[in-house]
Write a structure and sequence with these properties.
The protein is α/β, with parallel strands linked by helices and 355 residues long. Helix 1 runs antiparallel to helix 9 and helix 4 runs parallel beside helix 8.
Length: 355
C-alpha cells in the first residue's frame, strides 16, 4: 500500500511539472513532494464572530463545538451586518482588534458571515489573510499582487509568510451553514471515490482556464479520474468530487451528487458577490451540496491566475491537505476573489497514529 501511495504522489508531482510548475516554483524538492501534505487542525484556526449578527454568533458557536476550537480562539468583533462593502479604515480597526487577540501559533482565519464580502476593492478573505492593500486591486485588465503561498509546500503560512489564509464559513440561514459544517466533518479521512469534471463551455471569455484542462486530464490519468468535457453542464452524476467550469450561471448543479468534501467553482466576473449578484453566486454551490468554492467579488478580467488552478488544488487535496490549504494554494493572485467552505475538511488525509 505504501509503495502505491508513493507512486501515486510521484505521478501527481510529474503532472505538475508537465503543467509548467518547476520544483523551485512549488517550493520543495522531489522527495518532499512524495510525502503527505500538511493538514491544519482546530488549534491552527481563529474563528471570527460578528456579535452584531445573531446568525454569525450561532454559526461560530456550533462550529467551535463541533470542531473543538479552543475558546480563546473565538474572537468577537462588532460591525453592521447589513453592509456588503466595508471601508478600509473600518476594516483596519477591526483587523487590528482581531490580530491583538490572535495567538501567534494560529495559521488561518474563519469568518462566520456572508457580508461584508469586500473591503473596498478586494475580497474580505484576502484582506484578513494579508491585510488591506491596493496592490491586490486592479482597475481594468491588470494583474494584482501574487500570493507567496501559491503552490507552496508551506505547512505554516503565517510563520513562513505572515499570511493567514481566510475563508467564509456561513450560509443564508443557520440550517444551510450547519449542513456545510457537518459535510466538512463527515468528509474527514473518508478517501471517497469520485471524479473531476473540467468543462470547456461555449462561453469563450469564461473558459480561459480550459487551456489547462487537457493536460490536467492527461497527467492525472491513472492517479485520479479527470473528465475534460466540451459542454455546458453535467447532470445526474453521482461522483462529482471536483467540478470546474466557466459560465455566468451553471445549470443543473442540484441534479448531481457530491461526496462530502467536494469542491466546485465557476469562472465569472462576480460569482463571489455573496448577496445580490446578477450572476450565479458561489453560495449556490454550497447549497447544492458542495463543501468549498471560490469566486470573484469585483470584475477581475478572465486571467486564469486570479482563479483556482484545478491541477494545483487537486495536487494538495489528494495528498491530504485541508480544504482551506488546497484552495488557497491553487490561486496565484487571490486579491479579488473570496473563499467559502468548511476549512478543515480533509477527505484524503489519514488519521494521526496513536502510540
Amino acid at each position: 500500500m505504501q509503495s502505491i501511495l508513493i507512486l501515486t504522489r510521484y505521478a501527481v508531482f510529474l503532472s505538475l511539472l508537465s503543467l509548467g510548475f518547476s520544483v523551485s516554483a512549488l517550493g520543495a524538492s522531489t522527495l518532499q513532494m512524495l510525502r503527505p501534505a500538511s493538514a491544519l487542525t482546530a488549534n491552527d484556526l481563529v474563528v471570527i464572530v460578528n456579535e452584531a449578527d445573531p446568525l454569525s454568533v450561532k454559526i461560530a458557536d456550533y462550529y467551535g463545538r463541533k470542531r473543538g476550537i479552543p475558546n480563546k480562539q473565538i474572537v468577537r468583533v462588532r460591525f453592521d451586518p447589513a453592509m456588503k462593502v466595508m471601508k478600509p479604515e473600518q476594516f483596519e480597526a477591526i483587523k487590528a482588534e482581531v490580530d491583538a487577540q490572535t495567538p501567534n501559533h494560529v495559521q488561518a482565519f474563519v469568518l462566520t458571515w456572508l457580508q461584508p464580502f469586500r473591503v473596498d476593492c478586494m475580497s474580505i478573505t484576502t484582506a484578513f489573510a494579508a491585510g488591506y492593500n491596493q496592490q491586490f486591486c486592479a482597475k481594468g485588465c491588470l494583474n494584482t499582487r501574487k500570493s507567496p503561498y501559491f503552490a507552496s509546500e508551506s505547512a505554516k503560512p503565517f510563520k513562513d509568510y505572515q499570511w493567514r489564509p481566510s475563508i467564509i464559513l456561513a450560509g443564508r440561514n443557520f440550517e444551510e451553514a450547519k449542513k456545510l459544517i457537518d459535510r466538512g466533518i463527515a468528509a474527514d479521512y473518508t478517501h471517497p471515490k469520485g471524479s473531476a469534471y473540467l468543462l470547456q463551455t461555449n462561453d469563450k471569455a469564461r473558459s480561459s482556464r480550459a487551456a489547462l484542462f487537457p493536460r490536467i486530464s492527461e497527467r492525472f490519468n491513472g492517479t485520479w479520474p479527470v473528465n475534460f468535457l466540451k459542454r455546458e453542464f453535467i447532470k445526474d452524476k453521482s461522483d462529482v468530487m471536483f467540478y470546474f467550469t466557466g459560465l455566468t450561471h451553471v445549470p443543473h448543479i442540484q441534479d448531481n451528487r457530491y461526496p462530502p468534501g467536494a469542491v466546485a467553482d465557476h469562472l465569472t466576473s462576480t460569482g463571489g458577490v455573496l448577496t445580490g449578484s446578477k450572476q450565479m453566486s458561489i453560495i449556490e454551490w454550497i447549497e447544492a451540496g458542495l463543501t468549498g468554492s471560490y469566486g470573484a467579488v469585483v470584475e477581475p478580467c478572465n486571467f486564469p491566475e486570479k482563479f483556482p488552478h484545478p491541477g494545483v488544488l487537486m495536487f494538495y487535496y489528494l495528498r491530504g491537505s485541508t480544504l482551506i490549504e488546497s484552495y488557497w494554494k491553487s490561486v496565484a493572485r487571490p486579491g479579488q476573489g473570496i473563499f467559502i467552505g468548511e476549512p478543515l475538511a480533509k477527505p484524503f488525509a489519514y488519521p494521526a497514529k496513536k502510540f
